[in-house]
Amino acid sequence: MKRTLFTFGIVFLLAACGQTQPVNIPTKTSDKPAPNEAVADFSEGCFWHAEIVFQSLVGVRDAVSGYAGGTDKHPDYEKVCSGTTGHAETVQVYYDPAKISYATLVAAFFASMDPTELNRQGPDEGTQYRSIAFYRNDQEKKIIDDEIARISARYPRKIVTQEVPFTTFYAAEDYHQEYIKNHPDNPYVAHVSIPDWLEFKKDYQKTFNFK
Q: Total domain count for the chain?
């Protein structure tokens, strides 16, 4: 988001940012994992956006913003933004499999972004914004493969989302966590993140179980 924040700040400097209607932004429900909780990791551009997408789904306790898919063992926001670490902005999703399946999370992942955009999502450009579906076993990989096959006909271009075996996730800095809830008046949040999320909820209200 760093490259686009200045642009949006200028574009909306004279706009009435405060006119955005109040929105109930979903946040994590607890800091304590449940005994039978499962974990999944997804990259779909800005992790602020991905965080509220998954946290809005019934069965998801938390989506932690962070970095994955690269080689640097000590990534931070500045280094990841430089595009030199190989990492993508990622969310680690903590969910209850009794309430929401991994297949549903994968479907929500593909539905909430454009899987045909290479090394970008919306206004955000760079390898750190590429889309990745991480998998922990063969069953999860098959679910991802099946979803790609199911939705491919919808798009005029090839789906370029990467399928990557999960290795390591690095949580992002504290100020990135629950960023949209804590900074609703940020120009990028008010004019990109929240509208995109609201459109996702509107388009898929009959497909997914939202909080």
A: 1
